[in-house]
Amino acid sequence: MQMISARPYPRLAGDTRRRRALIGLTPLIDVVFILLVFFMLASSFLDWRSISLAPPANVANGGALEGAILVELRQDGSVRLSGDPVSLSDIAARARAMAADRPDRRFVVQPAAGVPLQDAIAVLDRLSAAGIAQISLTR
User: CA–CA separation, 2 vs 73, rounded Å?
Assistant: First the structure.
């Protein structure tokens, strides 16, 4: 009587089972590193939230600030727009209303001594978001 094997082919004497190949991580790490370098070099490092400030053309001439609106930042955290107290949330609407008749009107931001720079940047950001094009920063 002949025995039937479960395998379709009989096993030969010199046949050894194949071992499963292990996946090496080194080529994968190399590919990830190359992709990282590519995207770092191909990406843009522009600061899209930057505020451009240009110094006045002639500092000695007082006419450059004539008719400008003064925005004062005080040490206690209060903000004054042309001498009137205003909250930080309302400064954009008030500045937009003041510049409605003259869009080229200059706004001068003057932080007091000891005011954190982040507070001045917050005011400059609000004025820029309100569409004010002429912004100066002074001491």
Answer: 102
Q: What backbone phi and psi angles, to 5 degrees, belong to 49?
A: -105, 25
Contact by Cβ (8 Å): 133, 104: yes
Q: Is the pLDDT confidence value at 132 over 60?
A: yes
pTM for this one?
A: 0.55
If one looks up domain 66-137 in CATH, what number appears?
3.30.420.270
Collapsing DSSP states into helix, strand and coil, what is residue 66?
A: coil
Of 27, 55, 80, 72, give the one whose Cα is nearest residue 136: 55
Q: Tell whether the model's pLDDT for residue 94 goes beyond 70.
A: yes
pLDDT higher than threshold 70 for residue 76: yes
Q: Give the C-alpha separation, 96 to 128, whole Å.
A: 10
Cα–Cα distance for residue pair 54/5, rounded to 1 Å: 89
* Whole-number percent of the chain with pLDDT over 90: 7
